[in-house]
C-alpha cells in the first residue's frame, strides 16, 4: 500500500509538471483531469472519502468542462470541425 | 456584433491591419496623437515579445487616466474628431514620452513578483508556526475534536462525523460557503446573461455521446442524490453530492440540448431554487444559533442514529446545500457555454 501511495504521489508530481510544460492547451486540460483523478484516489487512501468525491466531481468534472468551454471560446480546440461560432 | 464608434473603431481597425501583416505606421501624419503613438508602441511591444500582456497595457492606461484625473470611462458615442479635440483640450501638458510603456511593464512585473513573494512568505510563516504533524499537544488533538468524535453522534445524530461537524457545530462556515457560491453565480449571471441571447448551446447530434450519456446519466444523477440524502450516514454530504448533481445536469444539457433543459430547469427556476434554499438554510441555522444551538421551540426529533430520517436539521440542510451547489455549477456551465452574438 505504501508502494502504491509513493507511485501515485510520483505520478501526481509528474502530472503537475507536465500540465505546466505541455505545449498543447487541450493536452494540459486532460493532464489536469488525470491529476485530479489521481488526487481523488489519494484522498481515499488518506481515509477521507468525502474529499475524494468532491475532488473527482469538481477537479475532473466541472473545472475541466469550464476549461474546455474557455478553449472553445479562444478557438483552441483543434481537430473539432463542428463550427459553433456561426 | 458590437458597434464600435469613434476612436475605438479606429484603433481596432489599426490592430486588425497590423494583425494581417500590414505596417500600422503607414499614415505618418497623425502619429503626433499621444494615445495613437502609445498604441503603436504597444503594438511593437507585443510584436517583439509575441504575446499580449494585457495587464501591463491596462496598468498603463489606468496610470495615464489617473494622471489626467479622469475616472469615468471614455465617451464612446462621440465622433472621432470631436473626441480627439476633447482629449487634447483637456490635457494641454500631456506629451508622449518614448519608453514609458517599457518602464511601466517592468514595474508591473516587479509588483507581481513582490505580491507573490509576500504571499509565499506569509503562508510559509504560518506553516512554520503550526504544530508538528502528530504532535500530541497540537490543538487538533485537544478536547474539541475529542468531543466532536465522542459525543458527536448523540449531539448531532449524524453517523458521519464530518457532516455532523460542518453542518451542526460549524454550520455558519457552510452558510458562508453557500453564500460565496451564490454570489459567484449571481455575478456570472449579471455579467454574461443577455435577454436576447440563448442560454446554452444546442445538444450535439453526436450518436456516441448521446448513447453513452444516456447510459451514464441515470447513474450520475442517482449517485448525486444518494450522496446528498445520505450525507449524515455515509461519506459525502451537500457539497460533494451537489457537485455530482451539477455534473449530471451539465451532462444532461450536453446530450439533451437546450430546448429540453429549458423545460426542466429554466434559468428563472434555478435562481428561485437557489434563493429559496439559501434563505431556508439561513433561517433554520440562524434560528438554531440564535437560540444558543439548542433549537428551543423548534425541536426536530433526532431519531435513531443510522436511520435516513435522523439527525434533526442535517437532512434538510444537506438538501439545501446540495441544491445550491448543483444549481450554481449548472448556471456556470450554461452561461459560459452561451454563444456570442
Brief descriptors of the model:
heterodimer; A: 86 residues; mainly alpha; flat; disordered C terminus; B: 341 residues; 13 helices; disordered N terminus
Explain what this protein looks like in three dimensions:
The complex is a heterodimer of chains A (86) and B (341). Chain A has helices at residues 2-21, 25-45, 49-73. Chain A is mainly α and 86 residues long. Chain B is mainly alpha-helical. Chain B is 67% helix and 0% strand. At the A-B interface, helix 3 of A face helix 10 and helix 13 of B.
Topology readout:
The complex is a heterodimer of chains A (86) and B (341).
Chain A: H1 2-21, H2 25-45, H3 49-73
Helix pairs in contact in A: 1-2, 2-3
Chain B: H1 6-19, H2 34-49, H3 54-68, H4 80-90, H5 100-129, H6 143-156, H7 161-169, H8 171-192, H9 207-229, H10 238-256, H11 258-264, H12 267-290, H13 314-337
Q: In summary, what is this structure?
A:
Chain A has 86 residues and is mainly alpha-helical. Chain A has helices at residues 2-21, 25-45, 49-73. The termini of chain A are far apart.
Number of helices of chain A: 3
Computed Rg of chain A: 15 Å
The residue fraction in helices of chain B comes out at 55-70%
Percent of residues in helices of chain A comes to over 70%
What's the number of structural domains of chain A? Answer: 1
Count of beta strands of chain A: 0
Number of strands of chain B: 0
Strand content of chain B: under 5%
- Main sheet: strands, sense, barrel of chain A: none
Please state the average pLDDT score of chain B.
75
